[in-house]
Amino acid sequence: MTEQLPVILITGGAQGIGKGIAAYFLDKGWRVVVFDQDADAIRACRQDLGNPANLHLIQMDVSRESDVVAAVAEAVEWGKRLDAMVSNAGLADPDTGPIEELELEQWQRRIDVNLTGAFLMAKHTVPHLRQSRGSIVNMASTRALQSEPDSEAYAASKGGLIALTHALAVSLGPDVRANSISPGWIDVRAWQAHAPSEQAPLSGDDHGQHPSGRVGTPRDVAAMVAYLVSPEASFVTGQNFVIDGGMTRKMIYKD
Fold it and tell me: Which PANTHER family does the annotation name (predicted)?
């Protein structure tokens, strides 16, 4: 009997960090399921990644439970198993303006996608992850740990995601491990849908403000995901890993 390849599910996987994670795991020989709401991004992702047989893309909205139920069922039917789930889908723009002007609808949409979506994905993938003794990775943000002005909704959603992660780790262990990653500045321009062929390089100042000497790439995040879902991380659960080139550790003063 032929051994089944491991299967990873990535939400928000048609562009940005999620697309980088999908490409990384395809290169490692995994079967990859991508969930994304953006139909144009799905079409571009399929083309950019070469439409391999080991890639399955599903259009859906992680904030709608009916979508999650149907999409997870389709993913498991296609993959015949589920070994890892990455909740990466989220509204990326943190700036929602002054708190006095922040509409409840705008606040709620970020909570629904960034946080409730991760809850729904965990709820409906856990039965399958228990069978494989699999792993959950939630994509948080350094903005869960430090803030810029006018980012209350985004910061709250990502902070809640870190708390959800350690709660899941305690509730689901030892069958399923759960960890989160908080990326800092990750240059995703080349990984966006219909990215231009030529882009201006980042400046020396952009790279120089990181103790590591450079801005991050999706591959930096993907490598951490690969570690966290691997047997080598079997003693790692409930943790948040900051991938930011040391930026949040650097004290910055105005001249």
Answer: DEHYDROGENASES, SHORT CHAIN (PTHR24321), ESTRADIOL 17-BETA-DEHYDROGENASE 8-RELATED (PTHR24321:SF8)
Amino acid at 55: L
Q: CA geometry: angle at 211 spanning 210 and 212, to 5°?
A: 85
Give Dmax over CA atoms of the chain in angstroms.
66
- Residue 70, helix vs strand vs coil: helix
Residues classed as catalytic: 154
CATH topology of domain 7-246: Rossmann fold (3.40.50)
Give every CB contact of residue 168 below 8 A, 6+ residues apart in sequence.
Answer: 122, 136, 176, 178
C-alpha angle 29-186-214 in degrees, rounded to nearest 5: 105
Tens digits of residue pLDDT in 74-123 = 999 999 999 999 999 999 889 999 999 999 999 999 999 999 999 999 99
Q: Could you identify the residue written with the tokens 């709250």?
A: 156
Asked if pLDDT for residue 195 goes beyond 90, the answer is no
pLDDT above 70: residue 194:
no
